[in-house]
């Protein structure tokens, strides 16, 4: 049920058109895919790097392929999906810009969600403590985090502008609630963008 | 679960054999007929015949997937996957497992009598392909009154058959499970098979394949072939863990050529015990069928094209220590399935046991296959 989904996933689940073809890149155990299948009758496929997550998703009856977003997106044909989704994975890829390009090649639209590294808590931690922030959304310490490209809302907007992508939708989350677009770079913990080429 | 009135039909049950009508047209252009197929069935077909699962065996496997082997007395080769409470469950599924043609456990093969001469075919048996094995399975399903398969499942050579099924019969397969397998035999795979075949043919008892009359088969050659193949089914880590450099029943090296090391003794045992249950000529024919296997080549060079007409959902599994059919081989299939728009799942499981892992205890494998067969909507 979408009610138990992580807030950014619930938001994406509400926005996807019924019956859409969806590729969820970094789909984890398939929670979003299952919700899209069950509630929106979507034809959902997944790509996931962790084998036990893939096994869990396959055991839910989902079509999930074990693979790496950095290397395996090239195997998907052009325009083969209505949506390509990258949720909380962008910051773990080696070349986030190239991954988004691939998403927009494979899907007519792409959802990209990521934690905002410019949230004020992180800024305070760095400014006053002089330490890399460890927060609810970013709980790992600097030496064992999977997040290798720290990105902020404004960084991402700048990339979108530079590449000439179109923003069809943008949402900002604080906890499980949507928050205002104003000063999102300072106050949003999490951002969701819907892009088009 | 409703069962059909013919549930006590003599076609269904353990240790069955069918003589299929008409000659079978083979990939080589030759034909084979009549064709005998030995098989077993487990469970009962439901009223709408929607619960049929075909299991395909590996190179030296047989139809005894979940019942005791008549020669060795050992439990069925995939008892961990097939049985009460297992992913393939006779309480829910009607399960068919047949012996491939070319083999020696009751299906037509080189040891069968050639009706033209009354003598064993030996090397006069036609050369087969994996597709020929699949066509014979389809003929058996016709005989059993089965139109559609809820699933076809196989590991290793069984996976090759499973993958071939939707390419030949796109309307007859709903799900396809391919474990530790490939879409084409590599040069390395062919090379190992050639070592085995040459070992058999170099045995003076082989005599061009005509050894059936006097009961003196090429046991030594077949044992060597099995020893070489067996190494490819394991992993270095697995061998090291199991045997290391430990000596067999002695405290010191003999400085001779006895089986000083445990691993030597183990391989000799594997080789010799194999000759009790397998025919050397069948080994030649089946390895040849595997070597000729290349689904893309059969479809004008395009693997994706092979799956264009199917609505089947696919599930592929590889093991990280399998160097005979490594993960990269499964990925080639997955990418082709993606390109053809087919529903495909793929997972690489971790195991120290190499290629053999698909036959061994693997809760993860069972979980994946069970989930895939249930389809998640129930």
Automatic annotation (TrEMBL), chain A:
Stored Pfam families: MetW
SUPFAM superfamilies, per the entry: S-adenosyl-L-methionine-dependent methyltransferases
InterPro entries: Methionine_synth_MetW (IPR010743), SAM-dependent_MTases_sf (IPR029063)
Protein name (record): Methionine biosynthesis protein MetW
Record lineage: Bacteria, Pseudomonadati, Pseudomonadota, Alphaproteobacteria, Sphingomonadales
TrEMBL record, chain B:
Pathway it works in: Amino-acid biosynthesis; L-methionine biosynthesis via de novo pathway; O-acetyl-L-homoserine from L-homoserine: step 1/1
One GO BP: methionine biosynthetic process
InterPro entries given in the database record: AB_hydrolase_1, AB_hydrolase_fold, HAT_MetX-like
Active site: 156, 322, 355
Domain AB hydrolase-1 positions: 51-360
SUPFAM superfamilies per record: alpha/beta-Hydrolases (SSF53474)
A cellular component term, taken from the record's GO annotations: cytoplasm
Keyword Aminoacyl-tRNA synthetase in annotation: no
GO molecular function term, any single one: homoserine O-acetyltransferase activity
Subunit structure: Homodimer.
Stored HAMAP family: MetX_acyltransf (MF_00296)
PANTHER family cross-referenced by the UniProt entry: HOMOSERINE O-ACETYLTRANSFERASE
Protein name: Homoserine O-acetyltransferase
Annotated source species: Sphingobium amiense
